[in-house]
Amino acid sequence: MAHQKTTTTQASTLQQLQTNSLLSLLNLNAPPPTIVSEKNALTSLGSNTTGPTVWKVLILDNRTKDVLATVLRVQDLRDVGVTLHVQLHSSRPALPDVPAIYFVSPTLTNIRRIAEDLNSGLYESFHLSFVEPLPRSLLEELASLVARDGTSEAIEQVLDQYLSFVTPSPQLFSLLPNIPATPSQPPAQGGEVSNLTTDLTSYYVLNAPSTTEQMIEAEIDRIASGLFSVVVTWGQVPYIRSPRRNAAEMVARKLNTKIRDHLLNATRTGKTLFAADGGGVGGLGRPVLVILDRNIDLVSMIAHGWTYQSLIHDCLEMKLGRVTVAEPQKKTKKSYDLTSSDYFWAKNAANPFPQVAEEIDSELTKYKQDAADITRSTGVKDVNDISQLDVASSAAHLKAAITLLPELTARKALLDAHMNLATALLAEIKARGLDELFSTEEAISRQTIQQILELLRSFQTKSEPSPTPQDQLRLACVYYLSAQTVSKEDTEALEKELTKAGVEEWELTSFRYLRKMKDVMKMSVPGAATGGTATPLGGGVAEGWGRGWGVLGNKLTDRLKEGGLDNLLSGVKNFLPSSKLLPVTRITEALMDPSSATSTSLTETDDFLFLDPRARATPASGPAGSRAGAAAGTGPEGEQKARRMTFQDGMVFVVGGAGYAEYGNLGEWASKSSRRVSYGGTEILDPSTFLDVLGKLGAT
Questions:
Q1: How big is the chain by its Cα radius of gyration, in Å?
Q2: DSSP string, 421-490
Q3: pLDDT at 193 (0 to 100)
Q4: Which of 23, 362, 559, 635 lies in disulfide reach of 639, CB 3.0 to 4.6 Å?
Q5: What strands lie across the sheet with 609-611, from one edge to the other?
Q6: Is the Cα dihedral 87, 88, 93, 99 positive or negative?
Q7: Nearest to 553 by CA among 430, 375, 457
């Protein structure tokens, strides 16, 4: 199978690298044309492509549709000549004078449908790209079908693309889910990120008692293959670190083998998927890939967040970067795309929510000032009236106004979208008392069982704000995992209060599963049950937390009961969130910047597996070679003696699921320490979904 990857640079984000690869694919696997940059997205008036455009059709399946949906808009497809994009297993008209790009998963069903299209002569030429490597058996099946029908001349290319992951944010990614092999599953359905079920999540598969060894092996291989695609897109061969004796080690060793096999084959063929890197022994020339197990920290997946992105992911319907908000007054739903070209989202996604409200107020003020400047210079009362100006009498100002008008219009639409999102979040905060839940969980290590029980009882007597039963279940889970010890009597008291709060029996299974897990976590990962230390990040995000609510308060005046907003805001002003390193961030710091890490973190990570895919698997033959290999610490498959190294570039991958709380926390540390770190997992799970997974495990 042929392959082609674009040249990468260390300064590019993972999302930019994947976008470049997709644009190259859509350009018939030629170097991608220049498109509008993220910074200039608002002021761009059109495409910046060069050379004649080749118009083509794009054929997708459900999985590859999700890959494109996170990084490319319809206009981006138009800019590279894609006039029509359709589903592979849909009824499609013949376009015999148009080339077609197939970007699909390597499955037997897809191969047979492609062969049918070839035999029907639907398109002028066929450019076949598979989201992950096409197995030899399927390649032979395709060759057999093409030879039978005599359609080989229509095939221009057959390529492996190594793009089996999605990047909803610049440095955030998740793997494509597995395609369920069940007879009831329709052909072209399943395996898409936007339709993930709990029994397909890696955490469930790897922890369910019913999972066989063969199923675990298949899941580990799937994860390693998906992670290999991420590393290929990254363009550099990393050092690999992981804890021992868990699923993370299995993935690390499998991935290491895949990279080593490719590098060995590359020495024979002269073709490699990786850009040149600093291949030396120092960490400065190469990045590090940290592979962790989800059980290293369950608290972060359950706790209530307070940043803009974590609240949106928790409270609203968010899939593949698209947020859907219900509009009760209109009895409809409206969707908003949160992309890297959205300057407000890029700047504020990881900020605390009150700070975001302040930024919205500030940006609206700037917009009004800019609009006032234009109206003042042109003499109109509203920017929407500029088109009605007398060209002859206002030519001097009309040119400047028309130049600025598209940017102002786009900026206003963007701010209106974030105003609506923030308003929806504020309504959720008010209704569920999320500020009180977050402040309680921030100080969970100082809470006693009596305080938690009293708080749960107080919720039952409140009318507003009143956390939902699931919110209370999450609070109880956070406390149970964070407390050093909880007696059997106290545990039963917690369950009793949760039942009174309306938590259903099937929902309590998640709490009972965590009870079983806590002992295992204490034995396998010291300190994991506490949910992290309060290591300061440095600097403060707490300043001005009481400000920024005026603009949202005014908008909600007619929606909330009198006094409701003031009561909410007074509660928010009374606490300042602490800034701490979550366990995943703390471990990453120890592996990338050991001079700044705590001794506890260093002791924990010193025992981590250390793999170098570029290292020789075995020392040279003979006594001298054996001594040299022992001195270098090289073992089988490139395993080396662990040593502390400093890295500027890194990637963190969590087997069992990632969350926005960790993504924001890790990004904040990376920014303060001047490092570039990508973060991802087998899936990106919101707290409710993760609780459902735990509940299903507890019920088995």
A1: 27
A2: HHHHHHHHHHHHTHHHHHHHHHTGGG--HHHHHHHHHHHHH-SSS---HHHHHHHHHHHHHHSS---HHH
A3: 59
A4: 635
A5: 165-169, 172-175, 676-681, 649-655, 288-293, 239-242, 609-611
A6: positive
A7: 430
- Burial label for 267, CB within 10 Å (0-12, 13-18, 19+), is exposed
**Residue-level pLDDT at 195:** 57
The helix (run of H) or strand (run of E) holding residue 307 is none
Retrieve residue 248's tokens. Answer: 């993370």
Could you tell me which residues come within 8 angstroms of residue 700 by beta carbon, excluding any fewer than 6 positions away?
Answer: 208, 209, 210
Least Cα distance to 82 among 91, 95, 646 occurs for 95
Q: Within 13 Å and on the Cβ side, how many CA atoms surround 196?
A: 28
Burial class (CB in 10 A: 0-12, 13-18, 19+), 28: middle
**The two three-digit tokens of residue 281, written as one number:** 């022994």
- 625-658 exposure pattern, b = at least 16 Cβ within 10 A, e = fewer: eeeebeeeebbeebbbeeeebebbbbbbbbbbbb
How many of the other CB atoms lie within 10 Å of CB of 407? 15
pLDDT confidence band for 518 (50 / 70 / 90): confident
Euclidean distance between CA atoms 201 and 690, whole angstroms: 9
Task: Report the alpha-carbon distance of residue 254 to residue 228 in Å, rounded.
Answer: 10
- The set of residues, in sequence order, having a beta carbon less than 8 Å from that of 523 and lying 6+ positions away, is none
Give the percent of the chain with pLDDT over 90. 58
Q: Could you give the 3-state DSSP secondary structure of residue 304?
A: coil
| 111 close to 142: Cβ distance less than 8 angstroms | yes
β-pair type (165-169, 317-319): unpaired
Range of weakest confidence among 338-342, 515-519, 558-562, 637-641: 558-562
Q: How far, in Å, CA of 274 to CA of 230, rounded?
A: 11
Say whether 74 sits in a helix, a strand or coil: helix
Q: Give the span between the Cα atoms of 301 and 73, in whole angstroms.
A: 30
Q: Kindly state the average pLDDT of the residues 655-677.
A: 95
The stretch 132-161 carries a mean pLDDT of: 95
Q: What share of the chain is helix, strand, coil (3-state, %, to 5)?
A: 50, 15, 35
Environment class of 674 (CB within 10 Å of its CB; exposed 0-12, middle 13-18, buried 19+): exposed
Pairwise CA distance, residues 35 & 190, whole Å: 32
Structure tokens at 466: 């009143």
Taking Cα atoms as reference points, which of 178, 179, 124, 116 lies closest to residue 142? 116
Cβ-based neighbour number of residue 388 at 10 Å: 7
Tell me the CA distances in angstroms from 558 to 415, 553, 555, 650, one per residue in order. Answer: 20, 10, 7, 48
| Six token digits for residue 459 | 């919720």
